[in-house]
UniProtKB/TrEMBL annotation:
Superkingdom of the source species: Eukaryota
GO CC, any one term: mitochondrial large ribosomal subunit
PANTHER family: LARGE RIBOSOMAL SUBUNIT PROTEIN UL29M (PTHR21183:SF18), RIBOSOMAL PROTEIN L47, MITOCHONDRIAL-RELATED (PTHR21183)
GO biological process per UniProt: mitochondrial translation
Provenance organism: Karlodinium veneficum
Keyword Mitochondrion on entry: yes
Keyword annotations: Mitochondrion, Ribonucleoprotein, Ribosomal protein
Family listed: Belongs to the universal ribosomal protein uL29 family.
Ribosomal protein found in the keyword field: yes
Main location: mitochondrion
Protein name: Large ribosomal subunit protein uL29m
Amino acid sequence: MAMWLRACAGLASRLPRRGIEEFWVGGLRDSKLGAGEKEASARTGDPWPAVLLRLKSFEDLHKLWYVLLKEKNFLLAEQHEARQLRIRWKHHGRLKKAKLSMKRILTVLTRREIHQQALRAKEILAKQEEREALETQRFHLEESMKVLNHKIRRSEPRDSVASTAWRSTLRKYEADHADMVKELVPLRKDTMQLLTPDWRYSRKYTDLPGGVNWRKEWVRALQDRVWKPVRNH
């Protein structure tokens, strides 16, 4: 029987531990630690400064966030138990440090995302300027092609040197137009998000149906104006 218990204990020690099994490790409910060890494990340093958090990658910040989240839940559980038992809880500063570190992680990630958005906005602006230049060239090229087509149709019964030159020029313009359209396809796709309306003024994020713009809706003069039929007699 004793051998079977030792075998079961060894098997349990080799099993992977879950997060809930480590929840009370090092805390007041940990039966494996003495009072002195619990007091020593409760001593913490300063919260994470933003200067050091800025040097970490997104994966490291992600892991640190969950470590702090586990620590915060651990401390909140101890605080709730102390309130239930009506005893004094000593680790308010430790909980404050965990919350402050999590707020600083959010601040670092938010500023990093704002910086990335600014870089993406610069790239989109450069592509938009390139697209506008190509669209202007495409428009002028199409107008020139229309003029040449009109001249060729007017001189169709006769074949002359001028009509032959017009046809060769038209073929060259058509080839340039096809190449220009190929260049415009990725630029149009990349700058399509500029046509997306601002979500802050959309009604789909409220309990009202439709996608009416807030600015158009709250124009008082347009709301109260009544259109009356005009009589011409």
